[in-house]
Specification:
The complex is a heterotrimer of chains A (289), B (776) and C (162).
Chain A: E1 10-13, H1 17-27, E2 31-34, H2 40-45, E3 53-56, E4 66-69, E5 72-76, H3 81-86, H4 88-93, H5 95-101, H6 107-112, H7 115-120, H8 129-134, E6 138-143, E7 146-151, E8 156-158, E9 161-162, E10 169-176, E11 182-189, E12 200-208, E13 215-223, E14 230-231, H9 233-239, H10 249-253, H11 270-288
Parallel strand pairs in A: 1-3, 2-3
Antiparallel strand pairs in A: 4-5, 5-10, 6-7, 6-10, 8-9, 11-12, 12-13, 13-14
Chain B: H1 17-21, E1 37-43, E2 49-55, H2 57-61, E3 65-69, E4 94-95, E5 101-107, H3 110-119, E6 121-126, H4 133-136, E7 154-162, H5 165-171, E8 174-182, E9 185-186, E10 194-199, E11 205-209, H6 214-225, E12 232-236, H7 249-264, E13 268-271, H8 274-280, E14 283-284, E15 287-295, E16 301-313, H9 319-328, E17 339-347, E18 353-354, H10 361-379, H11 383-390, H12 408-420, H13 423-426, E19 438-450, E20 462-469, E21 475-479, H14 488-500, E22 507-509, H15 528-555, E23 562-565, E24 568-571, E25 579-580, H16 581-590, E26 596-602, E27 621-633, E28 639-649, H17 656-676, E29 706-712, H18 734-746, E30 752-753, H19 757-768
Parallel strand pairs in B: 1-13, 8-30, 11-12, 14-18, 16-17, 21-22, 28-29
Antiparallel strand pairs in B: 1-5, 2-4, 2-6, 3-5, 7-17, 8-15, 9-14, 10-11, 10-13, 15-16, 19-27, 20-21, 20-26, 23-24, 24-25, 27-28
Helix pairs in contact in B: 6-7, 9-10, 10-11, 10-18, 14-15, 15-16, 17-18
Chain C: E1 2-8, E2 11-17, H1 23-30, E3 49-52, E4 55-58, E5 71-73, H2 75-78, H3 91-99, H4 108-121, H5 127-134, H6 145-158
Parallel strand pairs in C: 1-5
Antiparallel strand pairs in C: 1-2, 3-4, 3-5
Helix pairs in contact in C: 3-6
Bound molecules: flavin-adenine dinucleotide and FE2/S2 (inorganic) cluster (2 copies).
Flavin-adenine dinucleotide sits between chains A (32-40, 42, 57, 77, 104-105, 109, 112-114, 116-118, 120-121, 126-128, 169-170, 197) and C (42-44).
Chain lengths: 289, 776, 162
């Protein structure tokens, strides 16, 4: 693209939700929301996308800010990874999100990319989403018709597909604050240690029964092993409520194989992904114990 | 011999560094001309097809499209092959790789050029792509170049026959054998290919761009445009990395851009985007190898049989010389009494393989060094000892039945590497180190590297240098070799300063321009310093012959007694009474002394017999040994390279910080080649890994924390001031040392590079059982 | 066409941009600031890194229309971020020259912008922080060793230790 190219589409910078709704209503299907642009602009460059109107919502106030209300953190959808990393509230109440944020892209990407964009983009490799799923977070979707809340784990329905309806905007996340005995990890295998898309990621969250090696309320989410980020229910079951012993971790971790359905692609084979899903879970648990 | 005092490091600052750190350096993409157009290539979507018809009417009709050219529009010869004339600038009949050029477009904007290229309709008869080198070698296989008189897909063939193989096997106490494989490697220079071609008012074409070899570009542009060389002026812009990728490939793209500029008589710019650059430009030759090596109980080699099949891709480009280098280096720097080496370059329907730093040697090195380790394993010997036992000593015949000139440094590189890397304390037999999840290993690789072009390239192995002393004493240097980041801009003025007796500050380099000097050959094969350096010595000698008598006269002394150094001249007996270089220059000017000289240096000839491989091969060699220390995570297959010890016989270290930079960069590229850089394609041969997120380069996270560079200085016979090459030797042993270290760590063979985490993990798991010790 | 006003290297500018133009396009083509380089146009290589309101970002991923009211610093403006003498380089730039961290130079403008930004946030970064801060800037020439050395040296100099 260059400054000499003819106009390919329009651009609207919105400063209120109402502006966004109007723009989306005016342009229908060919309106495209843009937040940080790190997914969208790559699509525009490669001409994989040809919208007629870009609707920029980064300056909409409702999409910003991190607040604690009762037992939830409310995180605006336009919060960048860098903002997540700097937030004391997040480090106190949802540290898992920070563990994941620091592994997204590079500094440059973390300064632009948003958590809302990560979810809305509905990539199975999204790194921001598994912690949301593992923490049982909800997302607030707002349209002219009102507001609804959806569990993050139910948001994506396939690669690039979600429950988001026409005219609906991701406005905020509601993340239950963690309890004093909550523990967890976000573990990512990428081809490099930064600036890498996940080959597999495994996120674990559970409440440790004090003085034991037992976890309850276990939630496990995996990236890049299914058409969407998925919960690993079988693995959760296998690892909940029992005393975890280093000797049996491998066997229990293998339960995750029943939860995932990876494919071969340019980043890794299904075989390696299965192997590493088990490995990441096992080594993450070992580090916790 | 002496190791470098690290204190020298701060002394030399690169003259090009300031412009580069301020963003002022001008690269090809930064060149802007009024009324400039943008080029685009109409690419074949098919790897192999026959072009039935090209319909450019729609594209031509687009507003802002100034030209659409097909093969029929080429005024000169539609031929750009450097060695074999098998590659058209624009295809007229057969497309032979995905992205082969079917037509060219020039338009007002890059975007429009791109859309117009997509509007060109081409009717193809699609053929089955031929991608398997071994199958393509079989008789009666479909031909990729049916127009050649040869009835096979062989692009190059070299062999070495030495001694008596039967005797060699008989004498052997152990014979090891392996099938090995190396992958393609993408250069991934940070600056994609770019150029600007401007038709000048005097009818000449001015070609500026990012390139290694202006004279190759000049020849290609002249060929396709039909212009004489003197009407094609090629100027190198600041070049954002080459590594061989901008050796012959610019000829291809710049000559296309020149065709457009000539057709529309306006400046035309061509800039490949990253994806195009990866899809359309050359790669390191992937190879499949078979090695069989015999050795006696004490590790002495008795015979080597090697067969290396390289994938040439769709056109020959540099394959014959790359495979020549694989051949000569196939048995390493060792005494091999009996050898049988066969190498084959084979056409396939892939983008042509070409030059990449090391030029066929890294592949051969992986072959031979892997085998040296396996010999050691089979005999339960220390692989370092096996290398020392067989390393060529002065007077020994190399596998090509000639002694290598001045190879005294070779053994020393091994000994020093052993000592500096802590080999004796830390090496353990394969698989016998740490147990558990993380396994440590050490690996060594030793190389020799023939400097410059060698026997097949001797006809262009000469270079010039132009030196001009201005009346104020400043000196302008012009050479025909290009700065690519490797530091010629820094080293050559140092040679001028030493040769003339002036300071570095006296010397300025002129941009590389084909108007300055006749053809100096390519900037490849680590030859720039040696070739241009010697030409500089010649030119400086001519100038001194004219200046010294005058100096002696002005100082009232004998010429024999005259000393010129650091910009001062004096009679040795009376150093206090000196004259400055500036004064001498002014006096010389007033005395009408001819203050410019062209120096010329021709590489000593070398030989290679095509039937037996007997020959001197290259006029001199560089030697190096690298030791890698790695840690393998057996649970993930990831390898952390912890330390590299790199010992190089550089002949003479003129610019030690530059050598370190070359070595550290070589280590990084070599580590990428060994572990990460996996060029993937779909079943029809289209490259899938065409960006930084899928083609995995080492990032700052993967940088090897500890790279120790040790320079040995055994002066070379022909290098200026004794210099040997270092640019390519820096990468050649790296991947092999890493592969040997991995095999040492886990006690399993590494048959293929890149040894990606996935391959390593799956291999480990199948050897170690289902859990592969994740269960441990 | 959209009219965008922002600040580049301390100077206010107003430019007309197309919605699809990136900040990199506008810097290079409309404003003639050619120091930021294009190596991939997909946010991966870091050659186009600039500071946007003080934070390093890849200019190829930022739509120009988004920078209304923002302040942008490019490699051309880095020297004046340091209160040195008129015309002096930033200590990071100096250090890159001194230790020989520059080879082909194409990655260098972006690398320096990232390094300068790192040292503003963390004047004496540890090894891991340093590596992470530069992980979005690929260099194919140097292997990064001399680049790390340059940043450490600049950190020392800026901290007054040198
Ligand atoms: C070099 C590079 C490296 C990367 N590395 C990683 C990585 O390691 N891990 C990872 O997970 N991702 C990575 N990404 C992907 C990307 O950065 C993230 O997905 C990021 O979070 C996207 O956020 P954004 O604000 O930039 O989204 P945008 O590009 O602005 O939008 C993405 C999609 O979401 C929609 N959208 C955005 N916000 C909203 C909203 N509030 N409501 C409704 N729809 C919305 C847009 O219409 C678009 O379809 C990388 C990208 C690049 C270029
Ligand atoms: S050009 Fe912007 S990151 Fe590569
Ligand atoms: S100096 Fe060449 S890419 Fe960094």
């Amino acid at each position: 693209m260059t400054a000499q190219t003819p106009t390919r589409f329009g651009y609207l910078r919105c400063s209120s939700l109402e502006d966004v709704f109007k723009a989306v209503a005016d342009h229908g299907e060919r309106a495209r929301i843009v937040a940080g642009g790190t997914d969208l602009v790559v699509g525009l460059q490669g001409r994989r996308l040809d919208p007629c109107m870009l609707v920029d919502l980064v300056r909409v106030p409702e999409l910003h800010g991190i607040e604690k209300a009762d037992d939830c953190l409310r995180i605006g959808a336009a919060t960048t990874y860098s903002q997540l990393l700097e937030s004391d509230l997040v480090s106190a109440h949802a540290p898992l999100l920070q563990q994941a944020a620091v592994e997204v892209g590079s500094v440059q990407i973390r300064n632009l990319g948003t958590l809302g964009g990560n979810l809305a983009n509905a990539s199975p490799a999204a790194d921001g989403v598994p912690p949301l799923v593992a923490l049982g977070a909800e997302v607030e979707l707002v349209s002219r018709n009102g507001t609804r809340r959806v569990l993050c784990e139910n948001f994506a329905t396939g690669p690039g597909q979600s429950v988001l309806e026409a005219g609906e905007i991701v406005v905020a996340f509601l993340v239950p604050v963690c309890h004093e005995h909550d523990e967890g990890f976000f573990s990512k295998l990428g081809p490099r240690d930064q600036q890498a898309i996940s080959i597999v990621s495994v996120t674990f969250s559970g409440r440790r029964v004090a003085g034991t090696r037992r976890y309850e309320s276990v939630r496990i989410a995996c990236g890049s092993v299914a058409p969407t980020v998925v919960r690993a229910f079988r693995a959760e079951e296998a690892l909940s409520g029992i005393e975890l012993e280093p000797e049996t971790l491998f066997r229990s971790s293998r339960a995750i194989l029943a939860d995932i359905s990876p494919i071969d692609d340019v980043r890794g084979s299904a075989e390696y992904r299965r192997d590493q899903a088990v490995g990441l879970l096992r080594s993450g648990l070992e580090a916790l114990l | 011999m002496s190791a470098n005092p690290p204190a020298q490091r701060d002394i030399v600052r690169r003259p090009d560094a300031r412009a580069k750190v301020t963003g002022k350096a001008v690269y090809a993409a930064d060149l802007i001309r009024s009324s400039m157009l943008f080029a685009s290539i109409v690419e074949s979507p098919h790897p192999f097809a026959r072009v039935r018809h090209v319909d450019a009417a729609d594209a031509r009709a687009m507003d802002g499209v100034e030209a659409v050219l097909t093969a029929a529009d080429i005024p000169g010869r539609n031929q750009i092959g450097v060695i074999q004339k098998d590659q058209p600038a624009i295809v007229s009949d057969w497309v032979r790789h995905p992205g082969d050029c079917v037509a060219l477009v020039a338009a007002d904007s890059p975007d429009l050029a791109h859309r117009a290229a997509q509007a060109v309709r081409v009717d193809y008869e699609v053929l089955e792509p031929q991608l398997d080198t071994l199958k393509n070698l079989e008789r009666n296989h479909p031909l990729i170049h049916p127009e050649r008189d040869q009835r096979d897909n062989l692009c190059s063939r070299h062999k070495i026959r030495r001694g008596d193989m039967e005797a060699g096997w008989r004498e052997a106490d152990v014979v090891v054998e392996a099938d090995l494989e190396t992958g393609a490697q993408e250069h991934m220079y940070l600056e994609p290919m770019a150029c600007l071609v401007t038709p000048e008012p005097d009818g000449r074409l001015r070609v500026e761009g990012s390139m290694q070899c202006p004279y190759y570009v000049q020849a290609a542009v002249a060929s396709v445009t039909g212009l004489p060389f003197s009407k094609v002026r090629v100027i190198q812009g600041t070049t954002g990395g080459g590594f061989g990728g901008k050796e012959d490939t610019p000829s291809e793209f710049f000559s296309r851009c020149a065709l457009l500029a000539q057709a529309v008589d306006r400046p035309v710019k061509l800039f490949l985007d990253r994806e195009q650059d990866v899809r359309l430009t050359s790669k390191r030759h992937p190879t499949r190898m078979h090695y069989r090596v015999g050795a006696k109980q004490d590790g002495t080699l008795t015979a080597i049989e090697a067969r290396i099949v390289g994938d040439a891709g769709a056109y020959a480009t540099l394959t014959p010389v790359v495979m020549y280098r694989s051949t000569v280096h196939a048995c390493g720097p060792y005494r091999v009494p009996n050898a049988c080496v066969d190498t084959f370059g084979v056409y396939t329907n892939r983008v042509p393989s070409g030059a990449f730093r090391g030029f066929g040697a890294p592949q051969a090195c992986f072959g031979i060094e892997t085998m040296m380790d396996r010999v050691a394993t089979a005999l339960q010997l220390d692989p370092c000892e096996v290398r020392l036992r067989n390393a060529l000593r002065p007077g020994d015949e190399a596998v090509t039945s000639h002694a290598l000139p001045s190879c005294d440094g070779l053994e020393d590189t091994i000994r020093v590497a052993r000592e500096r890397s802590g080999w004796s304390q830390n090496w353990h037999p394969p698989g016998a180190g740490s147990t558990g999840r993380y396994r440590d290993g050490m690996g060594m690789a030793t190389i020799h590297y023939g400097n410059s072009l060698g026997s097949p390239g001797w006809y262009l192995d000469a270079s010039g240098a132009h030196l001009q002393v201005n009346r104020d004493g400043s000196v302008a240097l012009a050479i025909g070799h290009t700065e690519l980041g490797q530091g010629v801009l820094t080293v050559l003025p140092l040679i001028v300063a030493q040769a003339l007796g002036v300071t570095r500050e006296h010397v300025t380099m002129r941009p590389v321009d084909t108007d300055n000097l006749p053809d100096c050959g390519p900037t490849v094969a680590s030859r720039a310093t040696i070739m241009s350096g010697n030409a500089i010595l010649d030119a400086a000698g001519q100038l001194l012959d004219r200046l010294r008598p005058l100096g002696a006269k002005l100082l009232d002394g004998e010429e024999d007694e005259l000393q010129i150094e650091e910009g001062k001249l004096y009679i040795r007996s009376d150093p206090e009474n000196f004259m400055t270089w500036e004064e001498l220059a002014e006096e010389a000017f007033l005395a009408n002394v001819h203050l410019a000289a062209v120096g010329w240096w021709v590489a000593p000839p070398s030989t290679f017999d095509s039937e037996t491989g007997v020959g001197t091969c290259y006029f001199q060699y560089a030697y190096a040994t690298h030791v890698a220390r790695v840690q393998v995570d057996t649970w993930t297959g990831k390898v952390r390279v912890e330390k590299f010890t790199c010992v190089h016989d550089v002949g003479r270290a003129i610019y030690p910080a530059g050598i370190e930079g070359q070595v550290e960069g070589g280590v990084s590229q070599g580590v990428g080649y060994a572990l990460l850089e996996d060029l993937r394609e779909n079943p029809s041969g289209h490259i899938l890994t065409h960006n930084f997120s899928t083609y995995i380069l080492p990032s700052a996270m993967e940088a090897v924390p500890d790279v120790e560079t040790v320079c040995l200085e055994y002066p070379a016979p022909h290098g200026p001031l004794g210099v040997r090459s270092v640019g390519e030797p820096a990468i050649i042993p790296v991947a092999s040392a890493v592969a040997c270290a991995i095999a040492n760590a886990i006690g399993l063979p590494v048959d293929r590079i890149p040894c990606t985490a996935e391959r390593l993990r799956l291999a480990w798991r199948s050897a170690a059982g289902e859990g592969g010790e994740i269960e441990a | 066409m959209i009219l965008v006003s922002f600040e580049v290297n301390g100077t206010a500018v107003r430019v007309e941009v197309e919605p699809q133009d990136t900040l990199l396009d506008v810097l290079r083509q409309s404003l003639g600031l050619l120091g930021s380089k294009e190596g991939c146009a997909e946010g991966e290589c870091g050659a186009c890194t600039v500071l946007l309101d003080g934070l390093p970002v890849t200019a190829c991923l930022v739509l120009a229309a988004k920078v209304e009211g923002c302040s942008v610093t490019t490699i051309e403006g880095v020297a004046s971020m340091w209160k040195g003498e008129e015309g002096a380089l930033h200590p990071v730039q100096e250090a890159f020259i001194d230790v020989g961290a520059v080879q082909c130079g194409y990655c260098i403008p972006g690398m320096i912008v990232s390094a300068v930004s790192l040292l503003e946030r963390d004047p004496s970064p540890d090894e891991k922080t340093l590596r992470q801060a530069l992980a979005g800037n690929f260099c194919r020439c140097t292997g990064y060793n001399k680049i790390f050395e340059a940043v450490r040296r600049a950190a020392n100099r800026m901290g007054g230790d040198l």
